[in-house]
């Protein structure tokens, strides 16, 4: 009974690892290449390869091994460090960009000093 609960927990954990890697992979796929250079991060192809490998490794291997842990670290680094830098440089989401007016400043609309 205890082992059944443990294997269920490990299955849920494996799904979470796969979801993190898949989210990072799809997010990186929809970002512009020049945003990676502007944010002074590795290039887009590098992150696509790393996150793709992390997704495959988390799907194929047990989460108690070193490879899924390395994939988890790569996914967390992308989500916590690279993604916010890309959002700051690129101005919003990768797939749904907000279009502002020409008078918008970095902190919102510019109202001419009023």
Number of strands: 2
Radius of gyration: 19 Å
Unreliable spans: none
Strand order of the largest sheet: 1-2
Secondary structure class reads mainly alpha
Give the number of helices.
4
Mean pLDDT: 82
Largest β-sheet summary: 2 strands, antiparallel
Q: SSE order, as H and E?
A: HHHHEE
Please report which band the strand proportion falls in: under 5%, 5-15%, 15-25%, 25-35%, 35-45% or over 45%.
Answer: under 5%
Percentage of residues in helical conformation: 55-70%
Shape: elongated
Q: What separation lies between the terminal Cα atoms? A: 69 Å
Structural account:
The chain is mostly helical. It is built from four helices and two strands. The chain has helices at 2-29, 33-38, 44-60, 66-90; strands at residues 104-105, 108-109. The chain has a two-stranded antiparallel ribbon. Strand 1 and strand 2 form a beta hairpin. Helix 3 runs antiparallel to helix 4 (66-90). It is elongated. The chain starts with a helix and ends in a 5-residue tail after the last strand. The model has no long low-confidence stretch (mean pLDDT 82).
Topology of this structure?
Blueprint: H1 2-29, H2 33-38, H3 44-60, H4 66-90, E1 104-105, E2 108-109
Helix pairs in contact: 1-3, 1-4, 3-4
What would the keywords be for this entry?
114 residues, mainly alpha, two-stranded antiparallel sheet
Task: Write a brief structural summary.
The chain has 114 residues and is mainly α.
């Amino acid at each position: 009974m205890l082992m059944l609960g443990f294997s269920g927990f490990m299955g849920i954990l494996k799904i979470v690892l796969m979801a993190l890697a898949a989210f990072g992979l799809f997010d990186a796929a929809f970002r512009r290449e020049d945003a990676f250079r502007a944010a002074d991060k590795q290039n887009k192809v590098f992150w696509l390869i790393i996150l793709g490998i992390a997704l495959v490794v988390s799907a194929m291997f047990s989460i108690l091994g070193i490879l899924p842990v390395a994939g988890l670290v790569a996914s967390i680094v992308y989500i916590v460090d690279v993604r916010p830098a890309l959002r700051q440089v690129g101005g919003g989401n990768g797939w749904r960009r907000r279009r502002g007016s020409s008078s918008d400043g970095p902190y919102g609309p510019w109202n001419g000093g009023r």
